[in-house]
Amino acid sequence: MTSVAATRRSRITPEREAELYDAVLQLLREVGYDALTMDAVAAGTHSSKATLYRQWGSKPELVARALKHGRPGAARGVADTGSLRGDLRDAIVHAFDDCRIEQDAALMRGVGRAAHDNPELLRALRELLIEPSIADLRVMLDRAVRRGEIRSDNPALDLVPHMLVGALISRELIDGHAATQDFLATYLDAVVLPALRA
Amino acid sequence: MTSVAATRRSRITPEREAELYDAVLQLLREVGYDALTMDAVAAGTHSSKATLYRQWGSKPELVARALKHGRPGAARGVADTGSLRGDLRDAIVHAFDDCRIEQDAALMRGVGRAAHDNPELLRALRELLIEPSIADLRVMLDRAVRRGEIRSDNPALDLVPHMLVGALISRELIDGHAATQDFLATYLDAVVLPALRA
To answer: What fold, for A3-70?
Structure first.
């Protein structure tokens, strides 16, 4: 995910890029992925379609980058609070804002649904959102192993992404409402940390 | 989910009912929920639409009952193997057939997507599939508490449905392929039982 796209994007200012991403997210919330057109993005941001395609290559790439931009705390790195529990709680607080969680869940559900029928969108989402989140998690877990909080051969180590993503998704299916920060913090203490024996 | 529907359904034989459900599942796999029509079900099963509506009331109800019928091991109850680990492994083996898991996952994904936009379908799925599965799980967990395998105040007790449903769904999102029996058995030993301290 480096050279070509990075070179392309460097032609516009970061402020202009942020403005474009915000407009894409707004359109996604209003009309959903399928009905979002590059024409509408161009019109809403006073850009030309040619510029959009030159900068981002495709609609899936533009949407995935807008979602990455819109993730609160995306570019802040992984805080070292001194313990795995502290690191994970800090990540939850910065990744999920309860005031926005319902709205964001609806947005991600719509995009997730679209990705099932669109391999290019799925690839962009994995590359720009899922894999970097798993990498961040890996940093925290490696640190906890080095601190001596977790044994390096604990079989739950590779399953932490499944636990957290699973908690986030299953909450709505099972209980009919989106996961909150409180629910995720409870899940952390009741499931994730005991499974890691941390 | 008792009297009215039960009375309605009692007018056809169990064999005929099973045949109808199989035809509905076949159509679901072929065309998906949205494109499935009561006309197509009627034509494919040599029934009249009036009969279908009299027996099941609506398309969501018919589809949810067909899915319940198609769940392997649905009506077998909850085996008592003597331990929570045995009970849960037995449930996994009977609920998921690896040869069908990809096909079933695609089917359930399609129906799940349709349910997001269709509250009546969501209600039928919750009532006929999700809630009975959670009730089965509760039977196993209560038994494990009585056996002394789990403390009754363990905070993970209420989160077992989220762990299992989460493992099932997140596997594909994170690793790009459906959960298998082996994956679920590993998850059970690495996450569910340690969280329960069982």
So the answer is: Tetracycline Repressor; domain 2 (1.10.357)
Using an 8 Å CB-CB cutoff, list chain B residues near A134: 174
CA distances from B82 to A13, B89, B96, B148 (A): 65, 12, 21, 12
| pLDDT of res. A138 | 94
Q: What would the mean pLDDT of B159-188 be, rounded to a whole number?
A: 89
Confidence of residue B69 (pLDDT cuts 50, 70, 90): confident
Residues of chain B positioned with their CB less than 8 A from the CB of A195: 190-191, 194-195
pLDDT beneath 70: ranges in chain A: 1-10, 72-77, 97-103
**Domain at B3-69: CATH code:** 1.10.357.10
CATH class for the region spanning A78-196: mainly alpha
Is B170 in contact with A171 (Cβ distance < 8 A)? no
Question: Residues B137, B177: contact at Cβ < 8 Å?
Answer: no
Is B74-196 in the same CATH topology as B3-69? yes
Is A173 close to B159, i.e. CB distance below 8 A?
no
Nearest to B194 among A156, A170, A189 (CB): A156
Select the residue from A162, A182, A184 to test the B interface by mutation, using most B Cβ atoms within 10 A.
A162
Global ipTM: 0.81
Ordered by start, the domain boundaries in chain B are 3-69, 74-196
Identify the CATH homologous superfamily for domain B74-196: Tetracycline Repressor, domain 2 (1.10.357.10)
Token pair for residue A110? 């719509």
3-state DSSP call for residue B78?
coil
CB contact under 8 A, B116 and A113: yes
